[in-house]
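User: quick one
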Amino acid sequence: MQPLFRRLSYYSKLNDDDGDALAKLSLRDHSYAPGEDIIRRGEKTSQVFVIKQGWAVRYITLEDGRTQVLNFMLPGDIFDLQVFLDDKVDHSVAAVTKVTTTVVNADSILSLFAQGSSIAAALWWTTVQEEGILREQIVRNGRRTARERVAHLILELHRRARIVGAAGADSMELPVSQILIADALGLSFVHVNRVLRGLEKDGLIKKNKGVLTILGRSQLIEACGYSEEHLHLDGPPRRLSFMAVAE
Amino acid sequence: MQPLFRRLSYYSKLNDDDGDALAKLSLRDHSYAPGEDIIRRGEKTSQVFVIKQGWAVRYITLEDGRTQVLNFMLPGDIFDLQVFLDDKVDHSVAAVTKVTTTVVNADSILSLFAQGSSIAAALWWTTVQEEGILREQIVRNGRRTARERVAHLILELHRRARIVGAAGADSMELPVSQILIADALGLSFVHVNRVLRGLEKDGLIKKNKGVLTILGRSQLIEACGYSEEHLHLDGPPRRLSFMAVAE
DNA sequence: CGAGACGTTGATCTGATTCAAATACAGTGG
DNA sequence: CCACTGTATTTGAATCAGATCAACGTCTCG
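Assistant: Done. Structure below.
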């Protein structure tokens, strides 16, 4: 649960009890090869899991093969608290790199909620974050140019990776093909390539092996009007407001 | 709470107690003029409300004025269960027509959850629905052509309107300007107009005053590969799985 | 070393945008 | 009831951002 702990403690000070509680959530690990599906659309999952290592994508494929990536999942990301509804999931999740997940004991989460643990608040907060990211994805793809989209995505992914300790101050492993980026941004991979090369030519970024370096952060930000409101970086409240009510 | 009751009872048989419980949620009504903001980005809301009458949109505006509609809100739609986190909202909501909202007592909702009422399950289910709609919005705008987008949106809106009794079998009041449709679909309003006229010319739809009629449903469906999985029409479970645990 | 996947680049095409101007339409005030 | 005003719709013409097609380079890994 390192990445999740890291993520949660990035904002709110978690104490040792919280750490223990988190550790106890973890049931067993599972790992997936690159490209492998972790969850397939239409399945009913009764499991909550957390990405422990590696990158994954949520995605949907149309009948004719066009595919849209909804969101990238990094270590520390959770799938899927809505499981309590026991409904069929409406999208798939695939491993991008080798991925290790930790299956989480749903009952334990529930008792955390029942106890009013600050972990519960933090977990709920991650779902708020995730929805914010989804909404931003809509705006990005709906109302931004290709160059803006790419710049914006890079900044967002770097920020998220940094939070879980998977990135340096201005560089990160980006183990994601241009095809995937295209499917996330609603562009053709050819055009993504051109935009990327353009950003390099302009000295805003650099890519070497799998490592992307941000050379001109301020210009990159300016190039797309990046803001981080949607990431809800204020951090979770100590407790959910309804917990007070429940007492 | 008619529209909400209608929506919830469309799937699950609610009994009289449930109806009473729902009725008790309603605190007071409020109404808004067309174009008026109901919630503004950056505000902290501590209120949950339900659309009682009229249409609204969730939207985000970029600094330079480009705006993206995230989702349409119809009678029976709820904003915003995540309020329990007491966080700043990352998007705005504006009335499209004259809108009447009912402010809901958050505490009452919470006690419904605590009691394990089937209403609570149904409410949670509405949030699952809404996320499904958001994800579909991403796919639609990311990987579909203009014509597909328009056809798909029409079918989705009609279905949603029908559920809350705001539409006939193949027609509906669509009080939404082409500008708004464009902002929802990531297109220019000029092009939306052309596509709409194209669909009319092909005899798939008809628009008269504010009323849109679907003339060729099957062709419309075929034109965009419409499916309703994302609406999660199976309906909510009787109760949330964690309620059993809580006992 | 060979195969398959990914990246790069050029040439060409097109779906959608932009610009512009002409209706249609709804609401307001006289 | 009509003229007036602002807003939405419609249509045409020109343009462009990004897609498609095609070919070639590069890396990885069995």
